[in-house]
Write a structure and sequence with these properties.
Elements (H helix, E strand, L loop, with lengths): L1 E6 L7 H16 L3 E6 L2 H11 L4 E3 L2 E3 L2 H23 L5 E5 L6 E5 L3 E3 L7 E3 L5 E6 L1 H9 L3 E5 L1 E3 L5 E3 L2 H12 L3 E6 L4 E2 L8 E2 L1 E3 H10 L6 H12 L5 E6 L5 H6 L5 E4 L4
Parallel strand pairs: 1-2, 1-13, 2-10, 5-10, 13-17, 16-18
Antiparallel strand pairs: 3-4, 6-9, 7-8, 11-12, 14-15, 17-18
């Protein structure tokens, strides 16, 4: 099975959680799955920015990145990437730490401003700053690495054709990679055990939903702000060739493995599945 595993910064800040998640990833690699890991470090970046007095600005769950924020991101993402690779190789897994622009894996463009128009109100323009959108993915290069049994670990920094490094949302990057590779499953591992209609009520977890159902929930405003971009990314993935998208917990013991076996998490599939 081709797996793209996206790790949230929230499950990477504590060494015990990092060790447990890496152990599960190594188990999947040992079971002959082709695995690519994409990681964020949003929580760590926010904490560093606050320590340095850099304003933290987000819109609809997406970070606005100025020059100081980008410099902090370079430091944080590199440190997290090194920690992950070191843990994976400690299990004798040949992990390779990369940024999304290394080896020409991707070419990006700077994201254009977002124009928000509400009836009866002046149009509002949101400039995300030094944030990128993927223009091209060299999927054959990633596929060559996994075919040779390497395990790529990719941080969410991309670059445009001028050499400008850009921040990119890790969920977006993971979806673009999963689509390009034709993955069987894109797994988003965070601090929640799936998608909830009410985050305060565990009984409202949705174990499985189709793309049509997910769009209906979005239209109803049923998801929290942080979950909205994840669901939007999931829809993009399954509607562009990825067989399934899954949200699972990196906090729960064996949460990743149990989700893959259908015993935990939320699975989003195409409408014909």
């Amino acid at each position: 099975m081709k797996l793209l595993i996206k790790l949230s910064g929230k499950v990477l800040e504590e060494i015990a959680l990092r060790r447990e998640v890496c152990r599960q990833i190594c188990s999947l690699w040992a079971a002959q799955h082709e695995v690519v890991v994409v990681h964020g470090a949003g929580k760590q970046l926010t904490e560093l920015c606050k320590q340095l007095g850099i304003p933290v600005v987000q819109h609809q769950g997406r970070r606005v990145t100025d020059e100081k924020t980008l410099e902090a991101a370079k430091m944080v993402f590199s440190a997290v990437n090194r920690d992950l690779v070191a843990l994976l190789v400690s299990h004798r897994v040949p992990a390779l730490g990369l940024a999304a622009f290394d080896g020409l894996l991707t070419v990006a463009v700077r994201r254009p401003p977002l124009v928000i128009e509400n009836p009866g109100e002046p149009a509002q323009e949101i400039d995300f700053g030094l944030v990128g959108d993927i223009k091209e993915v060299q999927s054959d290069r990633l596929a060559q690495l996994t075919a040779q049994r390497f395990l790529p670990v990719v941080s969410s920094l991309c670059a445009d054709e001028s050499g400008q490094i850009l921040n990119i949302n890790a969920d977006t990057l993971a979806a673009d990679f999963a689509i390009a590779l034709g993955c069987d499953r894109l797994m988003s591992i965070s601090d929640v055990d799936g998608v909830y209609l009410d985050p305060r009520d565990p009984s409202t977890r949705i174990s499985r939903m189709s793309a049509v159902e997910a769009r209906g929930y979005l239209k109803q405003g049923a998801f929290t702000e942080g979950m909205i971009p994840k669901v939007q990314t999931a829809l993009k993935a399954v509607e562009n060739g990825v067989a399934a998208f899954q949200v699972a917990s990196g906090i729960r013991p064996n949460g990743l493995l149990e989700a893959l076996e259908g015993a935990a998490g939320t699975l989003l599939t195409r409408d014909d599945d």
